[in-house]
């Protein structure tokens, strides 16, 4: 027993000398330190496949998002094809009434439908597009165009006008049936019985809202007008059948005779509604109207002169002065509308007074007849 112990003591030093080991290897040998617990190893194992799982989930989400976008685009493509098959809307409606389909998609009210070529290029249907806009501008009835500066050494060019009566003298000859030669710079008004325009210049045909010859063919008649009694003319009742019959017969006759303008006399004996109806009926025959004594229409004079088918004004003694007619045509939106003052017999002094007042206004003229009631026409003031 002693010997065994001695051997053990003697061998220990020899083992340490023969196999010296680094300190790191000594740590690997069994010692008092315990190995890491098994569950720590199990926590480190999932770390190797966690990034792969995350990548797979992202890839799956991308695939689902792509499929959703594709289905939405498919549905929009079907709607686009349906819109392309609809008939094209007209550029404008014949009336001013708004025509909008209540059940139509909202964008069809804002943008016109795309053309087939644009759809093939894949332009979105709600993309802003150029739209042709048709604008209807009523012609200027009496306003003159701006003057053009003449070239050096040349006379000024005449001012162009949308109203061919502007700046012309009036020959008011409703009291004679004699034919007239006329003039290029004049407007000639002929009597009720004259059957042809003047050979030159513009002509106006006299028409009467009364029964001119009191034939009794246009009844029933009214009896409220002093003028009708004075001239022995029939005051036609506008509520009866004779009113339109009288107008149509005159319009048809004047149109066949080659007239373009007519004067409707005695409008102050009727309501504005009846007068406007007569003006519009004349327009249906292609005849333009000269307003007679609008100052006698009271507060309705503006509507009378402002009518689009009125191209001039004739004023007799006692029916208005230059300042009143200037204010009236401006209120009516026709500041350059021709105004002619006419007088006869004892109206020579009135014509001179009117001429003095009309000098300061454009497109106003004054004439006087020395041969009875409008048997001739003498210039007191020519329009400027």
How does the SSE layout of this entry go?
Elements: H1 2-18, H2 23-28, H3 38-44, H4 50-84, H5 116-120, E1 169-172, E2 182-190, E3 200-208, E4 221-222, H6 226-230, E5 235-236, H7 241-257, E6 261-265, H8 272-284, E7 288-292, H9 301-306, E8 310-315, H10 322-331, E9 339-344, H11 348-358, E10 364-369, E11 378-381
Parallel strand pairs: 1-2, 2-3, 3-6, 6-7, 7-8, 8-9, 9-10
Antiparallel strand pairs: 4-5, 10-11
Task: Provide an overview of this structure.
With 384 residues, the chain is α/β, with parallel strands linked by helices. Among the domains are: 104-136, no CATH class; 169-381, TIM Barrel. It has helices at 2-18, 23-28, 38-44, 50-84, 116-120, 226-230, 241-257, 272-284, 301-306, 322-331, 348-358; strands at residues 169-172, 182-190, 200-208, 221-222, 235-236, 261-265, 288-292, 310-315, 339-344, 364-369, 378-381. The radius of gyration is 50 Å and the shape is elongated. It starts with a helix and ends with a strand. The model is unreliable at 1-20, 22-35, 38-44, 83-119, 139-151 and 153-160 (pLDDT under 50).
Radius of gyration in whole Å, from Cα? 50 Å
Number of strands: 11
H and E string: HHHHHEEEEHEHEHEHEHEHEE
Main structural class:
alpha/beta
Uncertain regions spanning at least 5 consecutive residues = 1-20, 22-35, 38-44, 83-119, 139-151, 153-160
Distance between the termini: 160 Å
Rounded mean pLDDT is: 78
Looking at CATH, which topology of the domain at 169-381 would you report?
A: TIM Barrel
Identify the CATH architecture of the domain at 169-381. Answer: Alpha-Beta Barrel
**Continuous helix count:** 11
Helix content: 25-40%
Strand content: 15-25%
Classified by CATH, the class of the domain at 169-381 is Alpha Beta
Main beta sheet, described?
9 strands, mixed
């Amino acid at each position: 027993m002693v010997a065994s112990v001695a051997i053990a003591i003697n061998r220990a030093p020899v083992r340490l000398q023969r196999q010296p080991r680094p300190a790191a290897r000594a740590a690997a040998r069994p010692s008092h330190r315990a190995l890491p617990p098994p569950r720590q190893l199990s926590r480190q194992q999932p770390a190797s496949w966690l990034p792969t799982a995350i990548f797979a989930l992202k890839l799956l989400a991308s695939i689902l998002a792509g499929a959703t976008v594709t289905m939405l685009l498919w549905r929009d493509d079907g709607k686009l094809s349906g819109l392309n098959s609809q008939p094209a809307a007209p550029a404008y409606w014949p009336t001013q009434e708004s025509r909008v389909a209540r059940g139509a998609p909202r964008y069809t009210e804002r943008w016109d439908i795309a053309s087939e070529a644009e759809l093939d290029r894949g332009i979105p249907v709600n993309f802003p597009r150029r739209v042709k806009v048709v604008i209807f501008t009523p012609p200027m009835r009496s306003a003159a165009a701006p003057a053009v500066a003449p070239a050096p050494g040349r006379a000024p060019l005449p001012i162009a006008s949308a109203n061919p009566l502007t700046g012309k003298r009036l020959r008011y000859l409703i009291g004679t049936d004699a034919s007239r030669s006329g003039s290029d710079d004049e407007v000639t008004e002929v009597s009720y019985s004259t059957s042809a325009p003047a050979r030159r210049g513009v002509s106006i045909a006299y028409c009467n809202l009364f029964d001119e010859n009191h034939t009794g063919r246009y009844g029933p008649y009214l009896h409220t007008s002093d003028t009708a009694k004075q001239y022995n003319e029939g005051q036609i009742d506008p509520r009866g059948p004779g009113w339109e019959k009288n107008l149509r017969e005159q319009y048809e006759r004047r149109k066949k005779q080659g007239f373009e303008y007519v004067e409707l006399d005695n409008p102050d004996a009727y309501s504005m509604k009846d007068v406007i109806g007569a003006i519009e009926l004349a327009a249906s025959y292609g005849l333009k109207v000269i307003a007679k004594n609008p100052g006698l229409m009271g507060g309705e004079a503006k509507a009378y002169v402002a009518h689009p088918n009125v191209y001039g004004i004739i004023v007799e003694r006692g029916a208005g002065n230059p300042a009143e007619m200037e204010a009236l045509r401006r209120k009516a939106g026709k500041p350059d509308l021709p105004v002619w003052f006419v007088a006869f017999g004892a109206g020579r002094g009135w014509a001179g007074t009117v001429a003095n007042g009309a000098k300061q206004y454009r497109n106003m003229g004054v004439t006087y007849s020395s041969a009875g009631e409008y048997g001739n026409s003498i210039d007191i003031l020519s329009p400027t």
